[in-house]
Design brief:
two-stranded antiparallel ribbon; 5 helices
Length: about 150
């Protein structure tokens, strides 16, 4: 029977078409992603920086601490200037004899307010800049401090 089915004509075998084998769909090409920097596990400094950039409560508290420190510094030095320069008229009003003192032919009040006040203000300004930068450096060290 099998031989009879396979022959079309006597002595000639029937050509059987090959059965197509189902192919698996072609897999998509893999894409390789290469990062410029290999990230290490999140450190405390990275978390703190992300807190600052994402403006979370922790980051907001850190920035408020810096602003508070800068404001405190500014108020202290303003008080120094207020007492240093604003106290001179009170001094001369309370002790008029000091107001009559002359140095090199110039009254002491004119000398203090006209000449000495400028180096005093420059010194206070220099101190403010130096201390404000120190506050900012302390803040930066706090943010970038490695985890212990």
């Amino acid at each position: 029977m099998a031989g009879a089915d396979e022959q079309d004509a006597p002595g000639r075998p029937v050509e059987v078409a090959p059965v197509p084998v189902p192919r698996a769909p072609a897999a998509p090409r893999r894409t390789r992603v290469v990062l410029a920097e290999v990230s290490r596990p999140g450190s405390r400094a990275d978390r703190t920086r992300s807190e600052l950039t994402q403006q979370t409560r922790v980051g907001e508290t850190l920035v408020q601490g810096l602003v508070r420190a800068q404001l405190t510094l500014a108020l202290r030095l303003s008080l120094l200037v207020l007492i240093g320069l604003g106290g001179l008229p009170w001094l001369f009003a309370i002790a008029p004899s000091i107001g009559r003192v002359t140095v090199l032919g110039v009254n002491l009040p004119w000398l203090l307010l006209g000449v000495v006040a400028f180096p005093f203000l420059i010194g206070v300004g220099w101190a403010y800049v130096r201390l404000a930068e120190r506050n900012e450096q302390d803040f930066t060290d706090l943010v970038q401090r490695p985890e212990r």
